[in-house]
Amino acid sequence: MEFHTVVIGTGFSGLGMAIQLKKDGREDFVVLEKAADVGGTWRDNTYPGCACDIQSHMYSFSFEQNPRWSRSFSPQPEIWQYLRDVTDRYGLRRHIRFGVEVTGARWDADEHRWHITTSAGDYTARFLVSGIGGLHIPNVPTLPGVERFRGRAFHSAQWDHDYDLTGKRVAVVGTGASAIQFVPRIQPDVAKLTLFQRTPPWIMPKPDHAMPGWVKTLFRRVPGTQRLYRDAIYWLLEARAIGFNGNPALMRLASRVAKAHMHKAVKDPDLRRKLTPDYVMGCKRVLIANDYYPALTQDNVEVNTDGIREVTEHGVVDDKGVEHEVDAIIYGTGFHVTDAFDYLDITGLDGRDLSKDWRDNGIQTHLGITVAGYPNLFFLLGPNTALGHNSVVFMIESQIRYVSAAMRLVEERGAQALDTKESAQARFQSDMQRRLVKGVWTQGGCKSWYLDSRGVNRTIWPGFTWRYWLRTRKLEPQEFDLVG
Questions:
Q1: Same domain for 109 and 258?
Q2: What is the number of domains present in the chain?
Q3: Where are the alpha helices (DSSP H) in 266-390?
Q4: How far is CA 101 from CA 35, 291, 442, in A?
Q5: Between vectors from CA 482 to CA 476 and to CA 484, what angle results, nearest 5°?
Q6: Of the candidates 287, 302, 331, which is a domain's last residue?
Q7: Nearest Cα to Cα of residue 333 among 73, 137, 51
Q8: What pTM was estimated for this model as a whole?
Q9: Is residue 206 part of a domain?
Q10: Is residue 304 classed as helix, strand or coil in its secondary structure?
Q11: How many CB atoms lie within 10 A of CB 35?
């Protein structure tokens, strides 16, 4: 099956790209989705309390604003429904092939085409766009002895809704963004919750609230009001980048707010000590929650910071040799992010293997979108375009416009393909890493999923998102070789 473009994934990235293609007058494209419905991470993560930590009026497409968000920070079912509604509104379902998992892709230099292998046959395309993002491969730690555990064990992204936690003894491993959302939801129901914490997160108050009916009516009836509200949120969030990019005074101020937030809920000095980070705020992802700390103070909760030695048939043994008997283990340990690219099977010019290239030389891209030696291949929300302070949907929209411009350049010049010049990629990487070295992610004194195995930040965009918008607003033809 041959198409002009193959898009992989139906999260915000894949759907956004599909909509852009339709706006460009393209109908000869296909979107490949391994699951049975659209939604990406908002389809897969159904754990109790799952919600966005960016305001929904900003965490949505600018061209498809929703005046009906129930809350400032909407829950997972509402975001998932938004994506399904967008899919139907733009007539995308007829372009989507569900239950089709991409297993590899190979560039044919003679045909100037990508040959894509899947679980349901092969596809050929002139352009290949990856919209898989970085939060789709659960990171399940390999705990010694876990194979002999007789209870239930599952990751937060693969929540076992058939298992009733009521009255159960539960071990929660990890204290990331998912854990601080589901822990307060399951705490009232379980008999005992033992939270195994390796590193405490910095947690700020969550300014969440229900959206008043009159506001939703205003957004619906008065053109421009929701746009103004969205713009205000954007600049409020954008200001946070100042602290992340080497302003220690601002981060100290923010950390005092976070400590006050904790002290208000946690009166026990021993528990406070366990929950107080020893690294600079922002080094790891800053989380927001109002109910996490109160949940940890309840009588049926224990915060264990002794580490995990092994898992037995009936429990978890910490590094002090104490066995905690549990009925279930829930992993709140996030996803494979920088090492997710190890799972790629993409072959470019002269038989180059992308995952091997990146393992040997570090992840190298141009603008997080294209890679030298891999013509007509584009990544959405690729390396170094994730954010710690604003909405990634803003970044995605910048990228889909850029990809559209690249396709247009190829066709207007009568070429077959476009390949990033090594020199352009090297300049971008040099500038990127120079700025990242100064940021709190590198200088903050922690290890995080932002960093690869060499300690290099391959995840975060270092700076203001408006700078990325400006950089991707116009494609520079001199940065590419036109092929054929």
A1: no
A2: 2
A3: 269-275, 292-296, 354-361
A4: 8, 38, 35
A5: 165
A6: 331
A7: 137
A8: 0.95
A9: no
A10: strand
A11: 15
End-of-domain residue from the set 270, 302, 331: 331
Q: Looking at 335-443, which runs of residues are DSSP E strands?
A: 346-347, 377-379, 417-420
Which residues span the domain enclosing 268?
146-201+239-331
Which residue is listed with tokens 């596809």? 123
What one-letter code names the amino acid at 34?
Answer: K
pLDDT tens, residue order, the chain (484 aa): 999 999 999 999 999 999 999 999 999 999 999 999 999 999 999 999 999 999 999 999 999 999 999 999 999 999 999 999 999 999 999 999 999 999 999 999 999 999 999 999 999 999 999 999 877 788 899 999 999 999 999 999 999 999 999 999 999 999 999 999 999 999 999 999 999 999 999 999 999 999 999 999 999 999 999 999 999 999 999 998 887 776 767 888 889 999 999 999 999 999 999 999 998 888 888 999 999 999 999 999 999 999 999 999 999 999 999 999 999 999 999 887 766 666 779 999 999 999 999 988 889 999 999 999 999 999 999 999 999 889 999 999 999 999 999 999 999 999 999 999 999 999 999 998 888 887 777 777 777 778 777 878 888 898 899 999 999 999 999 999 999 8
User: Which residues are CB-neighbours of 91 under 8 A, at least 6 positions away?
Assistant: 22
Question: Across the strands, what pairs with 105?
Answer: 116, 346
Round to whole Å and give the CA distance between 128 and 6. Answer: 5
Residue with the two structure tokens 């790629």: 344
One domain, residues 403 and 290: no
Q: Residue 100's closest CA among 1, 223, 220?
A: 1
Query: Sign of the C-alpha dihedral, residues 229, 235, 236, 238?
Result: positive
Residue type, 350: D
In one-letter notation, the amino acid at residue 437 is V
Q: Is-contact 243 440, C-beta < 8 A?
A: yes
CA dihedral 120, 135, 41, 64 (to 10 degrees): -100
Asked if residue 107 is part of any domain, the answer here is: yes
The one-character DSSP state at 483 is E
Say how far apart CA 369 and CA 338 lie, in whole Å.
15
Q: Tell me the residue type at 255.
A: S
DSSP classification of residue 143: -
Q: Is there a domain that residue 225 lies in?
A: no
Instruction: Provide Rg for the chain, Cα atoms.
Output: 23
> Do 245 and 96 belong to one domain?
no
Residues in the chain: 484
